[in-house]
Write a structure and sequence with these properties.
globular; alpha+beta; single chain; 17 strands; 4-stranded antiparallel beta sheet
């Protein structure tokens, strides 16, 4: 019905993750069937899996067939429907900011003869819509559809005790991560802020496209009719591959991922320990390596375009890792993050994901949400933030020439373990597409003290390289590598940027050095240009709170608002 007037929107939607949200998605079908079976065995019914169905399976859920234990055939039209047009456009209210499909969906009012089987009456219905479209638009496009809270009604999840027989736990949460970031214009504690805040998810995930749909409009001042792209570009590069979609579908997702983050081979520590002397920033000069020596390669990963945590969504099964390759005269001599014949990634690689455990300490490796207990680690990176990873290596005694080191940030939607579960006896290896989001490469001469020009210039400003390095160190766990972070932010201040003293204040706050934090914030305010005023007020408020100056802290936080 919708396709008749909105062909361009329908064409993109039919290849979207929303279209394949239900039992027509092989990965989701495997996991939801596991949850249904677990509920059936434990409770005698499948009601636990409604937790999934509110967002993934609106058609079978609201029609009632979802509760049938025998339901689940992917060829069933109801199981194959996915998130239809009305699944979103018939929502009339977001009931709360809790997520988990906490919305009100109302049966839309249609013009006469909307579902008539008679061709003339169908034609008459279409003429009525086109002659008086205002009622149709008001019915299916409401102000709430333009708000990030609308997307958050499904892209924000918690695990209730009824599901896990444990306690309330937070699941994936695009919504809060976005609101607490500098990208949204609402977060007061970000490391970086865009030139202009982005106030809706659609700005990135539903870009405008030229269209002659009946509902197209002049939306961006270019004088061209456009609609919002309903492919919902994101990071699910597995679905197009699994469902046999045209090549352009996967290419759209891969282009969306490309350069979303960056890698900077920033420094080198001679001696191979965290406390070893640092040579940084690398380039335009590169030090020589000495035979028999141990080194740490200081590598920085920084988020650029994401408006929420990276990696988000199915962060326990997304496979995002750093692949490091060391070569001597084109011969591979070492590495981290390489793949085995079946596609399995070196388990000791650095992964940007969440390693989730069940009660017995086993990994949550098949999207079994009902068993989630606690994370072993969480390597997600917030928007406008960074992570610093140390790679240790030794230079063999007999090498000559140079050592080149390449670091790539790879993305694959599902890891090999999960894919093996999904495909069972059909598994022949993880051949899901891999996207290289970012990479960096550097060459070190061996047994030479002279500098060497790199193959490519580093376009990142020096102050920002130091700042990103310090952010990654500061964010490491509860304690962080604070001595190293303090040194890095001191370099930023020396290069004339207010980010230096601001971030020094963060370090001092972490250490309880309140006088030093106060002095750093005064220096940040005196810079030209000064630090962001809301950031100064936020951190000053934290200092005042720690000092017991609660009235002053309240004033600081009111200024932030």
């Amino acid at each position: 019905y919708c396709q008749q007037c909105h062909a361009d929107i329908h064409e993109k939607w039919q290849y979207s993750a929303h279209r394949f949200s239900s039992f027509n998605n092989p990965a989701y079908r495997f996991s939801v069937m596991q949850t249904r079976d677990a509920g059936l065995a434990q409770d005698g019914h499948t009601h636990k899996s409604r937790f999934c169905a509110g967002c993934h399976d609106p058609v079978p859920l609201f029609s009632g067939v979802f509760d049938d234990p025998g339901f689940g055939d992917p060829d069933d039209p109801l199981a194959n429907a996915g998130i239809t047009c009305t699944s979103c456009h018939a929502i009339t209210r977001i009931n709360s900011p809790r997520g988990n499909a906490d919305f009100t969906l109302t049966e839309p009012q249609h013009y006469p003869f909307a579902f008539s089987s008679k061709p003339f009456l169908q034609w008459l219905n279409q003429q009525l819509v086109k002659a008086k479209p205002a009622f149709h638009k008001k019915t299916f496009l409401k102000p709430l559809h333009r708000q990030p809270e609308f997307c958050g009604s499904c892209h924000k999840v918690h695990l209730p005790p009824e599901l896990n027989a444990y306690k309330w736990l937070r699941g994936q949460n695009h919504q809060d991560a976005y609101h607490l970031s500098g990208v949204s214009g609402h977060g007061a504690s970000s490391f970086y802020y865009p030139t202009k805040a982005v106030h809706k998810c659609a700005a990135c995930h539903m870009p405008l496209q030229a269209s002659d749909d009946f509902g197209a409009a002049f939306l961006d001042g270019t004088g061209e009719l456009k609609v919002h792209d309903h492919q919902f570009s994101g990071a699910n590069t597995a679905l197009p591959f699994m469902t046999g979609a045209p090549a352009w579908v996967n290419e759209t997702h891969r282009n969306f991922l490309k350069d979303a983050l960056r890698i900077d081979i920033f420094g080198l520590k001679t001696g191979g320990t965290i406390n070893s002397p640092l040579i940084a920033p690398l380039r335009p000069q590169v030090p020589g390596l000495k035979s028999g020596e141990s080194y740490l390669l200081e590598t920085v990963v920084r988020t650029l375009t994401p408006g929420h945590l990276f990696t988000e969504g199915t962060a326990d099964s997304n496979e995002v890792w750093l692949e490091v390759t060391l070569r001597n005269n084109d011969q591979v001599i070492g590495g981290s993050g390489q793949r085995q014949a079946d596609g399995t990634v070196d388990p000791w690689a650095h992964f940007i994901n969440v390693y989730m455990l069940d009660r017995e300490g086993n990994r949550i490796d098949r999207r079994n949400a009902e068993d989630i207990f606690t994370p072993l680690y969480n390597h997600q990176i917030p928007p406008g933030a960074a992570d610093t990873i140390h790679f240790g290596f030794n230079v063999p005694d007999d090498l000559q020439g140079e050592i080149s080191i390449e670091v790539k940030l790879n993305y694959r939607k599902f890891d090999t373990t999960y894919l093996r579960y999904i495909q069972a006896e059909k598994f022949e290896g993880n051949n899901l597409p891999i996207t290289v989001i970012a990479s960096d490469e550097i060459r070190f001469p061996i047994n030479s003290d002279s500098g060497q020009a790199p193959e490519k210039d580093v376009w990142i400003p020096a102050w920002q390289r130091w700042n990103d390095y310090g952010i990654g160190l500061l964010r490491k766990g509860q304690r962080g590598e604070l001595r190293q972070a303090e040194y890095a932010f001191s370099q930023v201040e020396g290069l004339g940027h207010a980010d230096g003293p601001v971030n020094l204040a963060r370090v001092y706050l972490r250490e309880g050095r309140l006088d030093d934090a106060t002095k750093a914030l005064h220096r940040a305010a005196a810079f030209d240009p000064p630090a962001y005023p809301w950031l100064l007020d936020w951190l000053t408020g934290l200092v005042n709170k720690q000092n017991g100056e609660l009235s002053a802290a309240i004033d600081n936080f009111r200024h932030v608002l």
